[in-house]
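Cross-check.
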Amino acid sequence: MAQPTYQTLLYSVEAGIATITLNRPDKLNAFNARMMNDMIAAIDATDADDAVRCVIVTGAGRAFCAGADLSAGPATFDFDARGLEAMAVRAADGTQRDGGGLLTLRLFDSLKPVIAACNGPAVGVGATMQLAMDIRLASAEARYGFVFARRGVSPDAASSWFLPHLVGPQTALEWCFTGRVFPAQEALDRGLVHSVHAPGDLLPAARALAREIADNTAPVSVALTRQLIWRMAGAAHPMEAHRADSRGMQARGASGDAHEGVGAFLEKRPAKYPDRVSRDLPDIWPHWKAPEFL
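Predicted model, tokenized:
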């Protein structure tokens, strides 16, 4: 499959691992509409490519992402005043949908595991975009900040859902109330990140984790697992999970992957899973419908 090209990202695939690198280093990888569209397109590309087993997202230069591009000055977040109607995604009532949220909702639906390798400062949307990624690794030089209240705005990127699910309401509120920037070790201590690494060890650690997934698991099973864990985070009752689990077990139990996985285990050999996400992902969600915006 031909590799796509982007204005604000670097994109590569090697041995089943796609790496998406935010690539505006002169702007500390500040987020703008072009980057939002590029990132959504990149996740579309990883979903469509059966050769991709796992995705790593990192930043070029010394930052992961310094938040929204503030080059428009005080009117940065005043979308109507800036006359952005041509590039806006509007709801029925005229509300401009938040660009960070469009990205995190796309990440929520990803069929491939997404690992954040946070190499440096990540504030505002640079922090909130990572919340919809599955596993977050940080450099010891990383810094996080949910700085919205210090800019006179409110949290973006559906972080009011994602952040308390990850760290609990008390920590989420303290970080967002104060808007302070905090170190990677605090992010680790409070459960925001999985591990902290020396700067030179960050990407090797992310690749080792991605390699563990790519080399040992069935891609369709991983895609279903990702959907189950994320979607059931908002379920009202465990019966919703039981319904989805039951459909998943029935569909996957009859699959070539399950036959191969059990056979390989019994024969003490590596499994070669035949199923592909693009053609063999079962629909275990007849009751699922993502809520419409407004």
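The radius of gyration is 20 Å. Residues 9-213 form a domain with the 2-enoyl-CoA Hydratase; Chain A, domain 1 fold (CATH 3.90.226.10). Passed to J.P. for a second look.
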